[in-house]
Amino acid sequence: MRDQMPDRIREEVATHVTAGSEDNALSALLPDLSSDEPGRLAIIDPGTAPSRGAIHLDPNNLEKRPFKGIDGHEADPTQRLNAKSETDHELWNRLAGREGDPTLERPEPCSGRASAQGPGWSTVSTI
Description:
globular; disordered C terminus; single chain; about 130 residues; about 10% strand; alpha+beta; 3 helices
């Protein structure tokens, strides 16, 4: 569902959303977005409760970290809440401040005896 446009999402999801392309102020608010990217955002309509436990962010206030939806919270007219589940990964990471290639944790090479993983790698065991 993440690669679908908000119009298609609107048909399938109980949450009431508006395509970001319908919000003229969004392009001015996020000038680094290309002309098609606002349309890839599904903004939760004011008065709608964000999905409980789902991760959201507010393009009006990107300095705040993404947050989980909780019971009793509704989007107010000053917010433009966007759900992570309804946004493609690349765009979400840019908005949430995780731009760039993801990094992988790799084991540190060690000197000494070769192990089953190959030369230079150590084996960790627990007792």
